[in-house]
Amino acid sequence: MSRLDNDGQPITTRGIAPNDLQGRTFLQPQPDGTIWRGRIVKEVQDLERQSSHFASSPEMINLKVSFDKKDVEDVIAYNDIIIYISRQANEEDGDLWKLRRVIAHQGPLTHRHPD
């Protein structure tokens, strides 16, 4: 079973190394329609996984996630987090602008203002 985006298309992404995910945030939709922001805290070390031949497989990696609004921590699979991150990136409209500072501002302007 493959995961689909909101348009019904299969979700495909380039992977992100689990070490690079620490501190990253993502949005997780909840069954009641709310959306929680999760912050990846750390990779969960699993003794079974370390001793198996699947140790380097991303499918076997679990990450500890902290949710801000509910003071809840959860363990989520690497693949699920990547799906949330890719879905969020695919659904963003336009460009994301990050401003260092606002150097000028006018307003409120009326229809009679020369600018």
Mind explaining what this structure looks like?
The chain is an alpha+beta fold and 115 residues long. The protein has one domain. 17% of the residues lie in helices and 23% in strands. The protein has helices spanning 47-51, 78-91, and strands spanning 25-29, 35-44, 62-67, 72-77. A four-stranded antiparallel β-sheet has the order 1-2-3-4, covered by helices on one side. A hairpin with a 5-residue loop joins strand 1 and strand 2 (35-44). The longest helix has 14 residues, at 78-91.
Helix content: 10-25%
Shape: elongated
From the alpha carbons, calculate the radius of gyration and give it in angstroms: 20 Å
Helix segment tally = 2
Strand percent estimate: 15-25%
Tell me, rounded to a whole number, the average pLDDT.
78
Structure in a nutshell:
The protein has 115 residues and is α+β, with helices and mostly antiparallel strands.
Notable features of this structure?
alpha+beta, 2 helices
Compile the SSE list and pairings:
Blueprint: E1 25-29, E2 35-44, H1 47-51, E3 62-67, E4 72-77, H2 78-91
